[in-house]
Amino acid sequence: MHATIQAYFDAFNSGDTDGMLACLSDDVAHHVNEGHIRIGKAAFGEFCAHMDRCYQEKLTDMVIFSSSDGRRAAAEYVVNGTYLATDAGLPEAKGQTYRLPAGSFFSLDGDKITRVVTYYNLADWVAQVS
Fold this sequence. Notes:
Blueprint: H1 2-14, H2 17-22, E1 24-31, E2 37-39, H3 41-54, E3 55-66, E4 72-83, E5 97-109, E6 112-120, H4 122-129
Parallel strand pairs: 1-6
Antiparallel strand pairs: 1-2, 3-4, 4-5, 5-6
């Protein structure tokens, strides 16, 4: 389980969406902070394409936690980013940088992630880029 979560985040930090998708179940439930739940790899891939257009991010200070039964995991990290293109409903992008604590929660079935939940403080992010 730890290896699956580490591979997912290694792929994220490498900008490797296909690598992230390889860690997910076909029917993955993606719970986005301040957003709707997306179901399936295709929806997750579309979300990643949107994020890649608007943001450039690297995750640091990563700590991964896991349950003893291998079915749940969590990670705490810092998002170090640059706001590249204006995202709908958010402040105008001008190449602003930000540093934001965040976390993710996971459900797993074997070596596949079936649920991803991401949390961060949107008000903190808005204050940093405004």
